[in-house]
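Side project, low priority. Logging it here so it doesn't get lost.
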Amino acid sequence: MQDTTALVFSEYSSGHDTGSHPENQARLNAIRQRLKKDNLLNDRMVYYAEPVDPEIVATVHSPELVDQVRAISADGGGAIDADTIVAPGTWEAALASVGAGIKAVDLVRSGKHNRVFTLTRPPGHHAERFRQMGFCLFNNVAIAATQAMTVHGLNRIAIVDWDVHHGNGTQDIFYVSDRVLFCSVHQWPLFPGSGLENEMGSGDGEGYTLNVPLPAGSDDIDYLSVFDEILAPAVRAFQPELILVSAGFDAHRDDPLAMMAVSDAGFRRMATRVRDWANELTDGQLVLMLEGGYNLRALSESVAAVLEGLDRPAPSERGNQ
């Protein structure tokens, strides 16, 4: 088994043509250019995702929501809301973005790789069971988690969401489940307006949603304190069989859509933390999935930093130091 983190791209992502929208194909182009420049694609396994059967998407989202994306895309594109765009090529791009997460789970569960990072678009963590919003159409990480449970027979999955915006969609989908521990650290107040500490799940899921809202200006020290003092004990108590990460990079200090102060090094240290949890709890099985991040330089450098942290964590970045 290779210990370097494998990557999953999608050749369909560019079909989700959003023009000058902040969430556009230039994000992925910048990431690939940066990884090439830093020689981070050398000796690394790279896979490509294919569109999944829409019935897989319908295991998480309502059939009406799935059909809406298909219809708008086939009709030449349009807007679901002011933030969420559908282009003629969006249908296949969205299905392939879902497919990337499923492929990543398959790769770690098969033993081919310990860690996989999917670098596709559109993102997904704002997509609720019955509603699309916030640039997101289908909830890639929620569908990947569901497939891990139904296909691979897992019973306990931890999802860590470090995107600067609360992962309301993922929370909505698993709010009544005790099989998924959803942990989100995010700026508050900020879109989408959810993610308060008292949102803890309900029914069987009570206590399995953990929200840590942080004020604007929170930096590396603040985030790492949350990881070490709040998230780590919760994840260890849950004893997951697989860890998934909604890896957004819009908490970066240079991101235009938020007001946090995380650095490239901060993201690297967060990645090292979840790698350590995976090594301790899940035989190293860890999947990261790209969400937000809208300053191209900050996004690409942070993704590179995360890969370096996953593959070659410095001694000072291990554990709770």
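Brief comment: The two ends are 28 Å apart (CA to CA).
Revisit when time allows.
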